[in-house]
Specification:
The protein is built from four helices and no strands. With 70 residues, the chain is mostly helical. It starts with a helix and ends with a helix.
């Protein structure tokens, strides 16, 4: 079906495709928020130490953005 739509649009993506993509991303973010709001999931993530990973990665991201802006 997707190939038929691409042929009908002469290979150009439409606004509808963009809408579907963005709505899918929004649903994934919403679903992740629902999962992370569960107290059991919060306890599990605190045991693993996900916050420590975020703190360790942040300086590398800042360094990358500085290098990229040069």
């Amino acid at each position: 079906m997707a190939t038929e739509q691409m042929q009908a649009n002469n290979g150009h993506s439409s606004d509808r495709d963009t809408l579907f993509m963005l709505s899918g991303i929004a649903l994934m973010v919403f679903g992740a928020g629902l999962i992370l709001s569960n107290p059991g999931a919060q306890r599990l993530l605190s045991k693993i130490g996900v916050g420590n990973v975020g703190e360790g990665v942040l300086p590398d991201i800042e360094r990358y953005l500085r290098l990229r802006s040069m």
